[in-house]
Here is the input.
Amino acid sequence: MKVDEDKPAADSRWRNGYYFLSYTFADKTIRLRGVDDKRIAHRIIDGSVLGRTERVSREPGDKRSGGSGSSELHNFVAGDPAEMARVAQLEDVFADADTYLLKPASKAEIFKARKKNTPKP
Here is the structure.
């Protein structure tokens, strides 16, 4: 999935790019799983995947308290389309839990949304 910011970011090397998503179809439902950032970070550090990884415990100006529970990993996988395909097919790249679950809306949900968004005369 291609992701680009509307405005150029201060540190654009982390902002623009693609998200890897694995998808499966089951009973009119699409299950999407994102990459497991910890697993990808280990592969980058070990050299089996080219790219860079960064552990962010706090952004400049962030008022939240730090600590090991608040850190996140930022990963960037480098390569051409063939390399991206290779990485996406590696074992245990994707998270175990669903990131998104897409289900078809019922007619009632569709008509409720339409009424809610219809401008008043």
Notes: The first helix runs from residue 37 to 46. The mean pLDDT is 79.
